[in-house]
Amino acid sequence: MQEGTPIIEFNDVNKVYPNGTVGLDNINLTINKGEFVVIVGLSGAGKSTLLRAANRLHDVSSGEILIDGQSIVTAKGKQLREVRRNIAMIFQNFNLVKRSTVEKNILNGRVGYYPTWKTIFGLFSAADKQQAAANLQRVNLGEKLYSRADELSGGQQQRVAIARALMQEPKIMLADEPIASLDPRTTVMVMDDLKKLNEELGITVVVNLHSVSLAKQYASRVVGLRAGKLVYDKQIGDVQDGDFDEIYDGKNQEVKEA
Amino acid sequence: MTIKKTFWQKYEAWIWALIFVIIYVWAFSGIPVTGIQAVAGEVTKSILHGLFHPDFSYVYTGDGEDLISLLLQTLAIAFAGTIASALLSIPFAFWAARTKKGGTHLGSSSGKLFLTIVRTFPEIVMAIMFIKAVGPGPFAGVLAVSFHSIGMLGKLFAEAVEEIDRRPAEAIIAAGGTQFDVLIHATIPAVIPEFISLTLYRFEIAVRSASILGLVGAGGIGAPLIFAIGTRWWPRVAIILLGIIVMVTVIDFISGYLRKKLV
Amino acid sequence: MNTIPKKSFAQKWHIKALVWTAIVLALFIASCAMTGVDVGAFLTGFNQFMQIFYEMLKPDWSYVPFTIKPIIQTIQMALIGTLVGSIIAVPFAVLAARNIVTNTVIRGTIRFILNLVRTLPDLMLAAVFVAVVGIGPMAGVLTLAIFSFGMISKLFYEAIETIDMGPIEALTAAGATKTQVVWFAVLPQVYNHFLSYFLYTFEINVRASTILGYLGAGGIGELLQRSLGQFRYDRTAIVVIGTFIVVVVVDTLSNQLRERLQ
Prior knowledge:
heterotrimer, A: four-stranded antiparallel sheet, C: about 0% strand
């Protein structure tokens, strides 16, 4: 394992859904500051559940999750919202408010920093509005600030979602299948954007992907899940070509040590 | 670099808001605020007191003028009226339905206009006209519901006829069938479940209308209600309202259940 | 050899359909008996009915100027009633939506209240409000507010239940409060539905408000009551025609606006 400061720690995390399905099976995983981690695995292997446990969009059944040393499992109300504020997330379906303008969507990323009443009256500071425009330029969509979100193509919407995520000034960026709804060309743009954030702003990035080749191209570390279990965990330099067959075939049940 | 909004982007919301405000300033100017009477407090108190102490003795007295008998009569008005109306609506529906593509639709348009007129014609006025004809009582209520419902049922039936799958009809024509064969073997089987469902829906509405037709003397629970309100007999008002609420809820539930089973 | 599959006894005789027809027929006959349906009386009295109808075919056009003000008042009542009803409806709709409020007790209570309100016919509410606040358009406005509240809350919460949950997840992940989630992720998605339902409810309220006056709750219905009371059916005809025109005009306008919202 790479030396560094842990930023996300999963300790003995289990998740069983009310219908009995096992989502996560005794996960132990430490992600360090500045890593670009790609999680691979089949659909239903628990990739989404793992990401959503990290910012507690899903509750876990047992175990402990620490974000920057602070437990998110027990956090409540304001405290929980403050932890979430530092963790940005982008989604497979972009999750933009399609009827709102791009500017409003980007500012939505900032609401955690304001008291509720101020946001309701639209009282975002001039600095934040400037920042929204700047973030949009960072993903090369500066001229779309006042367009409605549903006028944009899928790739553009995902980049708006990245701009929105940046408004949180996050330390961590979670991305759940960010390119699953995109074509190959826009896929590269979005992945390049994520890489840039990781390298230029030092944001820790955790991405769920289906594509092994993309994982090898962008990740600094690859983690594999199968049926809720952690079955693979290697730094990019140690990844062998044949490794991924095990994750996808399910022939090898044991955790591979890097 | 900052992007300038276009004039419309900047002001569209404000322009609509302004139109909205103007309309509402005008609307409020027309309604004198007369609500707060000098004795409003006292009145409200006695109303609330009455409403929370319903007159349960009225539920059943055995003389046929009690709550249960009149609620049953209300249901009977709604049921008889709706069934009669459903049968009467069928020819109107086929008159108003646009079943042929292209060309002018004089026939169906005139049918639709007729149904709109019937729908808009106030049910209360219709009830009063029937009272003149057959005298006050539940029969006038049945007639009012039967004829007034044609306006809505005829329209809904016509839409159902317009929306049916046309391919079975084509198949029958292609096999050498007549228009009458189409009606019997394709159209009617397709629309009957739809008609029944719409009739049930209309019955729910008819129960509500039947419970107010008594306000003008066309039978049902409306008459004792208006009498109790007129004499400020709040415990009696309360029990009648309660009865209507229970009746309507039960009917909605049953009808909703049956409609779900149909589809 | 072709063998035709045998129908079961129930299939052969359409037992289900027959039973249902028998039930409906029995209820129909019982209802007719209970309400004193008498086709003979209807036929003999029919000329009375037509008598009124003939009088209505000769409308008293000189009465038109007297209907303008009440018609305007009718529209104003409908506008205010719809607005008040919709404003009250928004928080109730949010609390009644399955995808926003997971607490079944809160949701159940709210839905129970909404169902209760929807059972009350408009004219009945009018009768009660006239007794409470006195004769006049105020009673009409209150009636329409309550009436449209019941209807529009249901339309609203059903609209909320169809929204895309993605933005809600995104806002929650960004650390938003419940109120912020509703404001930024829910309302922008249902805004157009709300406006459309607002207009639809306004149409229904215009129809309803034309008869509320019959019980003294303001608007054109007052003239209905007066002309009928004076047996001036030629004037009743004018009122009915006026009502018809208003309803058609409002429906047309509202339909156009609603189409633009799609």
